[in-house]
Each structure stands twice: as structure tokens, then as C-alpha cells.
């Protein structure tokens, strides 16, 4: 199976990591109250941001094909990780422009749930993990 997306994480200090995605660089860290330097979002915040941005982009791509104006669209995402006996919970709020019809909004909601990150999170996942010794 071909690798569609690859990312790398390398520690730069304490819990701070330099993330490389294609030619882009991002920083992930933990907040100070968790022992980090708060130089970037933590991994769970990045996950919520991935879902919010993927949802927005998916709706925008659809709207572009339909020639619908989505100027002003915002997607907020709150994330509550699973705790003992509870499921992981994502709360998505899609703030739509007020000039859209109820039919357009309904269709965009359906499309939003089809974003690749949403489908990944609600689907079954498998991990292929291995350890390599660096010399």
C-alpha cells in the first residue's frame, strides 16, 4: 500500500518538537503547566485543528464547484479525549454565512462529514509500528 501522507517529528527541546510535513515546518509543544515551553499547540490541539481545517476545506471545495460563496465560513472544533468509560468527543461548530439557503446549509453539513480527517477519525484505524535503532 502506498504512503499517501508522511510526517516527521524531531525533538528540539524538552517537549518541543519540530514537525516536517512535505516542505512545511510546524512546532508542537506542551503548555507550561504540563512541563512544556508552550511554543506551539500540543498534539491533541493539532488533531482538533486538522479536523476543523479539513472540514472547512472540504465544504469550500464543494461550494467552489457549485459556485456558492462561502466567504466568512468558520469551523470551530473542541476536543475531549477519551477517558475511562467515555468516548473521544469532537464538537464541531460550522459558522455559515447568512446568505446561504437552508438547502445549501443542509448539503454542506452532509459534505462536511465526508472530509478525509472526519472519515479517518470515525473509521477503524490500524497502526504499523516499528522501532529503528539510530547509530
SSE topology:
Elements: E1 7-13, E2 16-21, E3 24-28, H1 43-66, E4 74-80, E5 89-95, H2 102-112, H3 116-122
Antiparallel strand pairs: 1-2, 2-3, 4-5
Helix pairs in contact: 1-2
How would you characterize this protein structure?
- The chain is an alpha+beta fold and 135 residues long.
- The protein folds into 2 domains: 1-40; 42-124, GMP Synthetase, Chain A, domain 3 (2-Layer Sandwich).
- Helix content is 31%, strand content 24%.
- The protein contains 3 helices and 5 strands, in the order E-E-E-H-E-E-H-H.
- It has helices spanning 43-66, 102-112, 116-122; strands at residues 7-13, 16-21, 24-28, 74-80, 89-95.
- The protein has a 3-stranded antiparallel β-sheet with strand order 1-2-3, with no helix packed on it.
- A hairpin with a 2-residue loop joins strand 1 (7-13) and strand 2 (16-21).
- Helix 1 (43-66) packs across helix 2.
- The longest helix has 24 residues, at 43-66.
- The two termini are 29 Å apart.
- The mean pLDDT is 91.
Amino acid at each position: 500500500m502506498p504512503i499517501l501522507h508522511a510526517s516527521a517529528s524531531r525533538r528540539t527541546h524538552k517537549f518541543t518538537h519540530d514537525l516536517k510535513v512535505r516542505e512545511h515546518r510546524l512546532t508542537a509543544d506542551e503548555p507550561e503547566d504540563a512541563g512544556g515551553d508552550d511554543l506551539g499547540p500540543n498534539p491533541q490541539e493539532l488533531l482538533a485543528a486538522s479536523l476543523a481545517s479539513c472540514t472547512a476545506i472540504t465544504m469550500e471545495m464543494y461550494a467552489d464547484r457549485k459556485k456558492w460563496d462561502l466567504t466568512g465560513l468558520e469551523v470551530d472544533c473542541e476536543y475531549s479525549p477519551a477517558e475511562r468509560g467515555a468516548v473521544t468527543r469532537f464538537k464541531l461548530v460550522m459558522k455559515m454565512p447568512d446568505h446561504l439557503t437552508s438547502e445549501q446549509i443542509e448539503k454542506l453539513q452532509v459534505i462536511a462529514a465526508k472530509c478525509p480527517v472526519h472519515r479517518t477519525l470515525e473509521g477503524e484505524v490500524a497502526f504499523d509500528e516499528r522501532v529503528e535503532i539510530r547509530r
